[in-house]
Structures are given as structure tokens and as C-alpha cells.
Design goal:
Number of strands: 14
Mean pLDDT: 91
Number of domains: 3
CATH architecture of the largest domain: 3-Layer(aba) Sandwich
Bound molecules: zinc ion
Structural class: alpha/beta
Length: 472
């Protein structure tokens, strides 16, 4: 079966096929690092991870980019208020973000570009838009002229009137031609100068608007047409609508082939979790309350289909923790099983094989992990009964192992834990980190080989080095 994905633009499930056979170019909107992300943001980040893993399982090579927004209004405001530069303010939150991703077992992606390191690309894109009349200057600011792009509003299925009404009036302090026009570049203010958030551009000293960050970095690393662009539903309008306008007005080509949006996480009352209303929990809050990050992962991915709203509650988190326990118990029973000769039961074996097929089919159907897990947990009961009754032989054990591996390719909750390293090995890991910091890559490679001899593989992730024991 082939993968079908729901595309927001076409409002339906579409068979997925990338532009270039076997390779997927995917852009995913990353965090704004002015604070700890709330758990609703992590729902979106884990949906990206699920999509990525399923593409990999399906045999695709994936090139995924996730931006780090380290300059925007809130960042500057907060940095200036605290007497910090934007860099001083954002770096610790960026680190915390990578720590969180790691504890939630989100697989590192190929690139995490920072907005502040790609202002040159944004300036080039804005210049293209100015030259073609899609943008205009107004007292040091540069705006996108929405009237010049007739397809505006197509993704969010808004008509022109709604777009105009929906436009945020708060931005009216600027000199715009039309209320729905949005800023590509903002002239430098005293606050920007204090926070170190200013760049020189041919159209004046200032800083980029938020939307242009994503379109410029997406095109820089993935080309003018991407296969997949994913983000939380809250980014659909105006962010993604604006990204399309910027990219397509400049390139004249379709920007994105499949738009994937994840649903909201709501609080106990069903209200959308958001930082602006204050009804939010961070991952740190949940961990401090004693929840296992892997249970949080299972809750966020396995409880509801990714496009539907998901309600955060202690009960649901406990239910996920219980599922996690049952899953791990079964994996352990299968691992320790010493099958008796002739123990295999043909009906049970077939049930395992069928479950694996149903699981895969559910994932291929717009990543319906909850449906796949529903089928898996039915089988889990049968499997425990079959194990109790001694009806699992060599073939059954192997089939169960394959099923568990298939499920864990998405969940990644059974994987090897971070190894506990002895003092000598830990010292080597630290020496290698130091060698990388000082860019002595020859030394770093030498130490990596020494570690390998000790059965430790070090993987370098943007969140830092991560070690694991070699599977023997
Ligand atoms: Zn974005």
C-alpha cells in the first residue's frame, strides 16, 4: 500500500509521491526560542517526527529542515527589557528545546537553521519581491502587497473579505497600503539596536519579519518547490499563507506539494493551549509531576489522530503510561522467551502477521497511529494469553519481534536506554566533546574509534553528542 497524506490545500487525503523519486524534501516550522515551548508545541514537533519516521520506514530518504526562530517581536521585547542581546536571551532556550526533543525521542533532523544566520537570504528574497512589484517600501519598512498575489487565502480557504477582516489591526501603526499587507522587513527601532537585532539592507537598516524567515530558509535548503511543509494548525493563517505568497510571488512556482497541519492540544476544558492565555504546561511541568517523557510521547502521538484536537489530562497521561508499561512488558517477555519445540500455534501466528499488516495500513492511511495501536493492543492481550499457555514457538516469537520492531520504528520507546558509562569511558566522551569544541576533528575521530572499541557509539546531534552501546 502507498502512503496517503491529508493535504490542507486540496482538503483531502492524497497519494504521496515526492518530486524526486525516493527523496523527500520536508520543511517543518520550528520553535520561537523566547521561552520554554508548551506541551502543545511539542505535539506538532512530535507529529513531524512521526511523519519523518514513517517516510523512513517507507523507504524514502528524507531531508528535513526545522528552523529556529531566534529573532522576532517578543524576543526583542524581552531581551531589551532584561538588558540582554537576542542571542543571550535565546541560546539557553534553544538548548532547552533540544534537551526536550531528546527526552521525547524526536529523531534529530538534517538541519536546524537559525533565522539570525540567514538574514542575507531573506534580504535577497525581499529584493526579488521589490523588483517584481510584490513588495513596497514605506518609511523604512517593507511590506508584501497582498493585492498583487491573487492566490492569497487559498490554503486557509478564506475569501478576500475574510482575509481583510482577519488581518490583525494591531499592525496598523505602520504605513501600509492595505490592512492585510504584512511586513517583510521592519525598520530598526531603539529597542532593536539595544537587543542587537539589526542588519544592514539595501532598503534600510532593520530586521526581517517572521514569515520571510521560513520561506527564505526553506528555499535556501530545499529548493523552490518542497514536497512537504508541516506545522501546527495555529500557523495556517497567516503564517503559512504568507510563506506561500512570498515564495510563489518570487519564484513563480508552486511552493509546497503537501501541506500537513497538526491539531490543537487543548486543556481540560477543551480550550486551545496557548502562551498568550496562560493555560499551558511545559514538558518540564509534566516531568516534575512524575510523568515519564516516553509516556508523554505516547500520549501526544498515540491518543488521537494527529489532525484532531487532543485533550491534555492526567487520566490520559496515566493511560499512556500504562500502555507504555504493557508494551515494554510484552517486549521483555518476547526477549526472554525460550520457545519449546513444536509450541507454535498457526492461528496465533497468523493473527500476529495480520496485525502487522493492519498496523502498517493504518499508518499509510494519513498516519493513523491511534488506529494502528488499537489493533496492536488487541493483539497484545492475545499474545500474553498465548505466552501464558505456551503457544508461542520460534515462528511466533519471530513474528512478535517483527511486529514490536515495526511499532517501535514509530514510537521509539523500547530502544536502548542511554548507557551508564564507566569513569574512563565518560572521560573519553568528554575529551571528544572538548576536541569538537576546539574544532580538533582529527582528535575527535581518534577518540571516537577508541570509544567504539569499548562498545560505545557516539552520535553527534545538534543537541550535543549522544552515546549508545553498540548492539552486539
Ligand atoms: Zn514557519
Amino acid at each position: 500500500m502507498t502512503l496517503r497524506l491529508h493535504d490542507t490545500l486540496r482538503e483531502g487525503k492524497e497519494e504521496f509521491s515526492p518530486l524526486e523519486a525516493g527523496r523527500v524534501r520536508m520543511y517543518t516550522c520550528g520553535p520561537t526560542v523566547w521561552n520554554y515551548p508548551h506541551i502543545g508545541n511539542y505535539r506538532a514537533f512530535l507529529v513531524y517526527d512521526l511523519l519523518r519516521r514513517h517516510l523512513l520506514v517507507s523507504g524514502y530518504e528524507v531531508r528535513q529542515v526545522m528552523n529556529i526562530t531566534d529573532v522576532d517581536d517578543r524576543i526583542i521585547e524581552q531581551a531589551a527589557a532584561a538588558g540582554l542581546t537576542i542571542q543571550e536571551l535565546t541560546r539557553p532556550f534553544e538548548e532547552a528545546f533540544f534537551e526536550d526533543l531528546k527526552s521525547l525521542r524526536a529523531e534529530p533532523v538534517e538541519l536546524y537553521p537559525r533565522a539570525t544566520e540567514h538574514v542575507k537570504e531573506m534580504i535577497v528574497l525581499i529584493e526579488r519581491l521589490l523588483e517584481t512589484g510584490h513588495a513596497y517600501r514605506a518609511e523604512g519598512d517593507v511590506y508584501f502587497r497582498v493585492a498583487s498575489f491573487p492566490a492569497y487565502g487559498r490554503l486557509s480557504h478564506l475569501d478576500r473579505r475574510e482575509v481583510r477582516q482577519g488581518a490583525r489591526v494591531a499592525t496598523d501603526k505602520y504605513e501600509k497600503e492595505s490592512a492585510s499587507d504584512f511586513a517583510l522587513w521592519k525598520r530598526a527601532t531603539e529597542e532593536d539596536e539595544r537587543a542587537g537585532a539589526v542588519w544592514e539592507a539595501p532598503f534600510g537598516r532593520g530586521r526581517p519579519g517572521w514569515h520571510i524567515e521560513c520561506s527564505a530558509m526553506a528555499m535556501r535548503y530545499l529548493g523552490e518547490t518542497l514536497d512537504i511543509h508541516a506545522g501546527g494548525l495555529d500557523l495556517l493563517f497567516p503564517h503559512h499563507e504568507n510563506e506561500i505568497a512570498e515564495a510563489e510571488a518570487a519564484s513563480g512556482r508552486p511552493f509546497v506539494r503537501y501541506w500537513v497541519h497538526s491539531g490543537y492540544l487543548t486543556d481540560g476544558t477543551g480550550a486551545k493551549m496557548s502562551k498568550s492565555t496562560g493555560n499551558f504546561a511545559t514538558l518540564r511541568d509534566l516531568l516534575a509531576a512524575g510523568f515519564d517523557p516516553l509516556a508523554v510521547r505516547l500520549f501526544l502521538l498515540g491518543t488521537a489522530h494527529y489532525r484532531t484536537p487532543l485533550r491534555l489530562s492526567e487520566e490520559a497521561l496515566h493511560a499512556a503510561a500504562e500502555q507504555l508499561r504493557r508494551l515494554k512488558d510484552l517486549a521483555e517477555r518476547v526477549r526472554l522467551l525460550e520457545p519449546a519445540p513444536g509450541a507454535d500455534d498457526a492461528a496465533f501466528f497468523q493473527d500476529v502477521v495480520d496485525t502487522r499488516e493492519s498496523y502498517r495500513a493504518a499508518l499509510d492511511d494519513d498516519l493513523n497511529l491511534p488506529a494502528g495501536l488499537g489493533r496492536f493492543f488487541e493483539l497484545l492481550r492475545t499474545a500474553n494469553a498465548a505466552l501464558d499457555a505456551g503457544r508461542v514457538g520460534t515462528a511466533g516469537r519471530e513474528a512478535l519481534g517483527e511486529l514490536l520492531a515495526e511499532v517501535d520504528a514509530h514510537l521509539d520507546v523500547l530502544g536502548v536506554e542511554e548507557p551508564v558509562l564507566d569513569v574512563e569511558t565518560r572521560r573519553l566522551v568528554e575529551e571528544r566533546e572538548e576536541a569538537r569544541r576546539t574544532r580538533d576533528f582529527a582528535a575527535a575521530d581518534r577518540i571516537r574509534d577508541l570509544l567504539r572499541e569499548r562498545g560505545v557509539v557516539v552520535e553527534d546531534t545538534p543537541a550535543g553528542a549522544r552515546s549508545r552501546l553498540v548492539k552486539r
